[in-house]
Structure formats: structure tokens, C-alpha cells
Design goal:
heterodimer; A: 523 residues; alpha+beta; Uridine Diphospho-n-acetylenolpyruvylglucosamine Reductase, domain 2; Uridine Diphospho-n-acetylenolpyruvylglucosamine Reductase, domain 3; Vanillyl-alcohol Oxidase, Chain A, domain 3; 8-stranded antiparallel beta sheet; 5-stranded antiparallel beta sheet; 16 helices; 19 strands; 33% helix; B: 110 residues; mainly alpha; Cytochrome Bc1 Complex, Chain D, domain 2; two-stranded antiparallel ribbon; 5 helices; 6% strand; disordered N terminus; disordered C terminus
Chain lengths: 523, 110
């Protein structure tokens, strides 16, 4: 059953794909309608509007799609590829389109046709024995969670912060992260199905072996390992993805550690890194700063009505009155009662020996935020609490500046100082957390600004460009970036990387029809 | 047109247990499921503005949902269909501030 209203064939779309004539594009639209049905080919302003809502610091006109088409089957995606190749229509595939702060659902450049795969939302298999799942692009974390609950399958998800409306395939192929022991999502991915630009369907890993039952259990398969080239890229349309799920542990013990001073970030890293590498703390723990914590529970207007960077004395007042640390660690233990007890003793011993940090248990935190939503994230539950970040300054502008950090205290101190200085130059706030990976940390800074204020938007754009370049000069680069800064970021990774990216693009998608500009890659 | 309260727990049992589970995209089991699982996570937690008891016009609510507004994300038809959105908008428009939301949200139009 469909509830879409029938959409008439457009006489003249307001935006055309670059280099495609109005009549050719009209022909392509007619072919899309033949393949998908009129209700799945959207060209009117009303239906396109949701896809143009961006948070990046530049005009939505630069990211306005020419149309949105919605496929339901792999065969439809294959047929769409044929049309796009013939007419040279670029398509921008999205899964759930919830890449907030990285470009949302909108294409990297105007005039691309969004291929919305939200309707391909089958949970094809959940194997409770092997703890694996195989899903389509449109499956949301909420849908998968509901499925596990309804079927009494004791497996946990790992989700990014807007878990309730995002989905695992899109997040994983953009190499997003979560907060559980499975928080490095791409590491926990196993097997893909990819529709290539020429219409062939590739199954990666063990997936090409006839009658295999190992597609979701062995990542590497044989020969070159290919899954990586279909992440943060534009070499194919991923239509199925396997993933590993975590068995629900008998005991789950989330906790927080509060630190009073900005400079404590050095000792936090030095104290906790060994515990993370040794697996004593198994999850992707976070170190959130005062503004990140505060933003999750209130707008800054509660303490500060001015514009520009929030003054330090205001932050001190917030820390004192709201009981927030300069840095706030969130981690968790998972396992049997005995395992958790042993590791808890190691952790409390290490904190005591370090001479700073106050541990807060779930019992002490009770129902208070932000502890409550952090505890949800570290067990892969549904929450949107972190949208509070967008209310901190208001105005709907957000771009994640997320440099990779070596998990060393000295480096976190340097990066934090540099980021604060640059953000301060532009009147913006250092709203940050470190998410701790296996050896690295993602230093996640939400560059928040009032998108309804053109002057502030311009300032945020300049600030982000400077963050990229100044960090780049010191050997730091982001792990992922929004659609406005993909080329500048690609440059940081060097000309040879760009050359290889392009060589692969030309080999796999010689007409450049899939997501031109993604990660700075074009033919 | 009237609204029938249905406990969320009862609706959660309706899911298929087949191995190729798919809910019809954007077609919720009723407006209250969409409200519970999406809208309320921000609008009952203080993250987004309180909407209840303000007699906001349904048309305005639908406009904001489709287009987004500042920090509020936009929701395309693939995320919530027109019928469900109609129900959510009516519910929010007619809600009272102190209504027991978890059991009083409408299940479907009847």
C-alpha cells in the first residue's frame, strides 16, 4: 500500500543536473516513472522540501536536488543506473538521510537526483546464534531494535546519538561510530551487496560464493578486501549490509567520572587509554566537555544572553550550579557479575591512583540527564536527547569538525587549545567530546551557529575552513566531513590518495553518475 | 472523527516475526507510535519546545514537520506518511498540557 499522492510529471523542473538539457531530463524522469511508478518520483517543491533542509554553513541552493526517486528493489536500482548512464544524470543515494551536521539528506552539489532508499527497509535476517544481522538501507535503528524486542532476541545494537531516526547501513558506510563495545561500526560490518554503476550486483566477502552461509561471519573473503572502497565513497550503491550484534550481557554497569579542570584532559587520556587498549573498558567511551554536557540539558540562554563565544566565567557558573565537570567521562562495563566486579576494581583503583576524578555510578546519577541518555547510548538504545546541542545557541546550524586524535594526553591538550582558540576568533563555542576508539580518538566538535543569521553563517563557514587548514598544518585531519568541505578535506590526505580515488572512480563509474563530489571524488 | 486511545504495548505485539521483516516505510501503526518513537523524544524531554496545550494549527505543524525549522529536522514522506502526519498534527493541536501523553495519544482515525 502506498500513501504517496500521485505526482504529475513535471513540465519544467526548477533545477537540472549539470550538462543535462531540460528535454533529456524530462525523458529521464519519464523513465524513472516507468521503473518506479509516479508516486516514487518526486519533483514538486512540497515533496522536495524535506530533502533541502541542511545544517551546513552555506546556501541550500548549493545542495538542492533536481528530483527525488525512491526505489524498493535491487532490480529497480539496476534499471535506474542504466537510465542515469544513458542520460548522464547524477544520483545521490541516501539510506535514511539523517546525516545531520554532515550534509543531512542533500547532495554534495545542486542538480543531483536523490536516490532515496528509505523504502528498502527489510530486516532480511537476524541470526540469534551467530549474533549477526543483514539489513537493507532503509532499516532504522528503531525498527531493528523493535524487531529484536518483539522477537525476544537478546542482542544489542550500537548507534550514533540520533539513534531513534538514523539507520545502521547509512551510518556504517559513512564510517560513523557509536558508544558500545561495537562502537567502531565499520569494524563490526560483515558483507555487503552493492549495485555497481554498470548495473552488476557485487556481493563482497564470502557473498560471491554460491550457497555460502558465511557471508555475515567472515569479513575478508578472498583476494582484495573490497568493503572499504564502498564506504565514504561513490563507487556503488550499497543495497544490503551485514553486521555483528552484541549479545546482551548479564550485567551492564554504566558510570561517569567528573573532572573539574580543562587541563585534566591530559590525565584523563593517560589514565584511561591503557584500560581501553587492554579491554578493561571495552566500549567507545567519551570525554565530553562542559558545553556538550550543558547543551544536552539546556539552552545557553539560561546562563548567558549575549552573542559570540560563551565567556569562561559563565562556564564556571554552569559547572558550579549544574554540577557539570570541565570534562565528563562516560564508560561502561559489560559481562558477568564477576567480570564486572574485577574490572570495576581495576578502574576505581586507577582513578584513585591518578589523584583526580570523581566517579559517579548509575545509582548515584538516578534519572538525571545527561547520565540517562549516555547510559542509553552505551547500550545501543533509542534517544534523541543529544539534539539538545542544536538548542545551545539555536538557529539550526551545525557542522561536525572531527579530527582524528592519537590517544595521548599531550595531543588532546594541543588539539583542544587550538580548537578553542580558532572557534573563539570567530565568536563560536568549543562544544566537544572525544570518542575513544581502539587506538585513536575522534575529537568531535560541534560547530554550532545561527543559520538564520547570514553574517553568523558566513563566520561559521570561515571558521570551519580555518579549523581544517590550521589542524592540517599540524598533521591533523578529520575522519569525515560535511558536504561543503569535502574537497578541502580530500586535499589534506594528499595528491596520491586523490589520484587513486579518482582512478577507482573512473574504473567503476566511468560516467561519474554516482554521487559526484562525495569525499571530493569525481571522474 | 474521534480518537481511540490504545496502549502502546498492545500495538508492539503486531509485528511480523518472519525473517524478512519490513514495516511499511513511513506508514506507522498509528499517529501515537510516530509521536512516541520520534516526536516525543524531543518535545516531551525539553530538547524541543513544548507543543501541547498551545492549540497550534494542524497545518502549521505539518508545514514545520515537512520543511523543518531551525534546529527541527525535516521529515520526508518516506519517514512519515501524510495520513500519520495528519493524525499527529491533530493530536498535538488538540492536546492539553497535562494530558497523560503515553496513553492518550490517538491510535488511528476512526
Amino acid at each position: 500500500m502506498t500513501t504517496q499522492k500521485a505526482v504529475p510529471v513535471p513540465a519544467a523542473p526548477t533545477i537540472l543536473p549539470p550538462g543535462v538539457s531540460a528535454s533529456d531530463f524530462a525523458g529521464a524522469i519519464r523513465e524513472f516513472i516507468e521503473i518506479l511508478g509516479a508516486e516514487n518520483v518526486l519533483t514538486d517543491a512540497d515533496h522536495l522540501a524535506p530533502y533541502t533542509k541542511v545544517m551546513v554553513a552555506e546556501s541550500e541552493d548549493l545542495h538542492r536536488p533536481a528530483a527525488v526517486i525512491m526505489a524498493r528493489t535491487v532490480e529497480q536500482v539496476q534499471k535506474i543506473m542504466a537510465v542515469c548512464n544513458r542520460v548522464r544524470v547524477p544520483i545521490w543515494p541516501i539510506s535514511t538521510g539523517r546525516n545531520f551536521g554532515y550534509g543531512s539528506a542533500a547532495p554534495q552539489s545542486a542538480g543531483q537526483v536523490i536516490l532515496d532508499l528509505r523504502h528498502m527497509n527489510r530486516i532480511i535476517e537476524v541470526d540469534p546464534v551467530m549474533c549477526t544481522a543483514l539489513v537493507e538501507p532503509g532499516v532504522t535503528y528503531q525498527q531493528l531494535k523493535d524487531y529484536l524486542v518483539e522477537n525476544n532476541i537478546p542482542l544489542w545494537l550500537s548507534c550514533p546519538a540520533p539513534s531513534a531516526i538514523a539507520g545502521p547501513l547509512g551510518n556504517t558506510v559513512d564510517r560513523g561510530v557509536g558508544y558500545t563495545p561495537y562502537g567502531e561500526h565499520f569494524m563490526m560490518q560483515c558483507g555487503m551487496e552493492v549495485v555497481l554503476a554498470d548495473g552488476q550486483v557485487l556481493r563482497t566477502g564470502m557473498g560471491g560464493v554460491e550457497n555460502t552461509n558465511a557471508w555475515q561471519v567472515f569479513k575478508w573473503g578472498y583476494g582484495p578486501y573490497l568493503d572499504g572502497i564502498f564506504t565514504q565513497s561513490n563507487y556503488g550503491v550499497v543495497t544490503k549490509m551485514g553486521m555483528w550484534l552484541m549479545p546482551q550481557p548479564p550485567v551492564y554497569k554504566p558510570f561517569s567520572i567528573r573532572y573539574d579542570k580543562d587541563e585534566d584532559i591530559h590525565d584523563i587520556v593517560e589514565t584511561l587509554r591503557p584500560l581501553r587498549i587492554a579491554g578493561v573498558i571495552p566500549n567507545a567511551m567519551v570525554f565530553a566537555n562542559v558545553m556538550w554536557e550543558a547543551a544536552a540539558i539546556m539552552p545557553r540562554s539560561k546562563y548567558y544572553q549575549g552573542t559570540g563565544t560563551t565567556p569562561d566565567h559563565v562556564l564556571e557558573e554552569i559547572k558550579a550550579k549544574e554540577g557539570i565537570g570541565a570534562w565528563n567521562v562516560y564508560a561502561a562495563l559489560y559481562g558477568t557479575k564477576e567480570q564486572v566486579e574485577v574490572n570495576w576494581n581495576i578502574i576505581t583503583g586507577a582513578i584513585k591512583a591518578s589523584g583526580k576524578g570523581r566517579i559517579i555510578t548509575e545509582e548515584e546519577a538516578g534519572e538525571t540527564e545527561p547520565f540517562k541518555y549516555r547510559a542509553k547510548l552505551m547500550r545501543g538504545d533509542m534517544t534523541l536527547q543529544e539534539f539538545g546541542l542544536y538548542r545551545w545557541r539555536g538557529g539550526g546550524g551545525s557542522m561536525w569538525f572531527a579530527p582524528v586524535t592519537v590517544a595521548k594526553g599531550s595531543e588532546t591538550r594541543d588539539q583542544t587549545e587550538l580548537a578553542k582558540k580558532i572557534l573563539g576568533e570567530f565568536g563560536l563555542d568549543y562544544v566537544a567530546e572525544y570518542i575513544v576508539g581502539m587506538r585513536d580518538m575522534h575529537h568531535i566538535i560541534d560547530v554550532l551557529f545561527d543559520r538564520s543569521n547570514p553574517e553568523e553563517m558566513e563566520r561559521a563557514h570561515a571558521c570551519f575552513a580555518k579549523l581544517l587548514s590550521e589542524f592540517g598544518k599540524r598533521g591533523y585531519a578529520v575522519y569525515r566531513v560535511n558536504t561543503a568541505f569535502m574537497d578541502q578535506t580530500a586535499d589534506l590526505y594528499g595528491p596520491v590518495k586523490r589520484h587513486v580515488d579518482r582512478a577507482l572512480k573512473r574504473a567503476l563509474d566511468p560516467n561519474g553518475i554516482i554521487a559526484p563530489g562525495k569525499s571530493g571524488i569525481r571522474i | 472523527m474521534k480518537f481511540r486511545p490504545i496502549a502502546l504495548a498492545a500495538m508492539l505485539t503486531l509485528g511480523s516475526a518472519s525473517s524478512a521483516f519490513a514495516s511499511p516505510t513511513g506508514v506507522w501503526r498509528g499517529p501515537n507510535e510516530a509521536w512516541e518513537k520520534v516526536c516525543s523524544r524531543c518535545h516531551l524531554s525539553g530538547v524541543g519546545p513544548e507543543l501541547r496545550g498551545r492549540q497550534l494549527p494542524p497545518e502549521y505543524i505539518k508545514q514545520v514537520v515537512r520543511h523543518g525549522f531551525l534546529a527541527m529536522p525535516a521529515f520526508p514522506h518516506g519517514a512519515i506518511d501524510d495520513a500519520t502526519l495528519d493524525g499527529v498534527a491533530l493530536y498535538v493541536s488538540k492536546s492539553r498540557l497535562n494530558a497523560p501523553v503515553k496513553t492518550a495519544a490517538p491510535a488511528k482515525k476512526s
